[in-house]
Write a structure and sequence with these properties.
352 residues, mainly alpha, 2 domains, 0% strand, flat
Amino acid sequence: MRETPSPRPIAIWLLTGVGMIIIQILLGGITRLTGSGLSITEWNVVTGTLPPMNEGAWLTEFTKYQQTPQYHYLNFDFTLKDFKFIFFWEWFHRLWARLIGLVFIIPFVIFLIQRRFRPSMVRPMLILFLLGALQGAIGWIMVASGLTGDAIYVRPTRLALHFIFALGLLSYTYWFALELLIPKDKKIHDPKASRLTLAILIVLFFQLIYGALMAGHKAATAAPTWPDINGKLVPDALVNQDGWLNWIDNSIAIHFIHRGLAYVLVVLVILLSIRLFRLQGDKVFSRYRWWPLCLVITQTALGILAVLNSLKIIPNHWGAFEWLAQLHQLVAMFLLLSLIGVFYMLRRPLNQ
């Protein structure tokens, strides 16, 4: 009988993808913070792999950018040198996406030839492929929203959609790797802790959406104070003229919801940690149970520091706020993965 190949190489491949997706999301953050996202006005999957190779090609791309609303209303004083800077970050962001595709497809073919995939792995592989393709399509839809009319940035709702789908791809890839790395007998079934972790993940889902809306609306400077919001714990400008909570377009309302969800997350993670520390498990579980608490505290502190430093933003300059914003985004991803790891460890397998 033919021996079943070890799934470890597949797990390492998936974790490599996890690392590359984290870098890709961070590159998306740099692209946003540098205002680079609209510098490339076309999506050419093959011919767009290489940047302009001569001065004439650079001038052609610059001319295309000069037709955009962002150039007319915001960057009308840009020189070719300025354009090359923002072009680089958007190009590199797209190049990294292409590299992720190669890192997925080449080992996939090799593992297929080696017959490493079990029948149970086929559906997750197809889902990964579809999520990756969908994320690319959403990325272009997001960029296109900033190339017409009087838009000088992409629409915040589409930015949030792009961000949350990227995190979905990240989470699914990580979960798939955990299934291959952690045996079922190492899991600890605790229904209450499992349900609480799921509830935290749901709250975190909405929190991440509001983090993206904060970024899309560039809302940090709207309330650069803490713990109050411009002098009030519950600001007056939460509702529109009709008396409804404007929870998508109102920067103050977005601040209020984003901060409120952060406090809820801190309390829930503390409650979860108390329960996790009472459970007995192996070394893997003992390591996992520390991470959500450490990361949620770090994440909250970074968010506060980012808001307090938002008035120090200097256009076309990378400073304290930008570093804090990037760290805030990175720790958010680690927090998400830590909770997914805990949820995996606590969840009873479906066939039991």
